[in-house]
Amino acid sequence: MGRATPSFREKYREAVETLRSELVELLRKERREAFEELERVWNEELGAISNCSNPYILGSLLLVALLDLERRVKELEGRMGELEGEARNGR
Fold it and tell me: Do residues 37 and 70 lie in contact, with contact meaning Cβ atoms separated by under 8 Å?
């Protein structure tokens, strides 16, 4: 007989696919890229995440905030790299 309730991994995959279809496709390119990075992190931390529960609305709001923070970090990393390059070249 099959499993009566879906495993956390099944629920996780479904949630990510729902986010992709309902949210990510509508985001600007920078935030879509941030989502990809965040999904990589989620996959690495799936064991820890499986021990937490999140209300969906709050989770969605936090997700968008995290995506924006990830985008900003990437922008700052890029700018920092530019400044380091300028410093090495004696500017």
Answer: yes
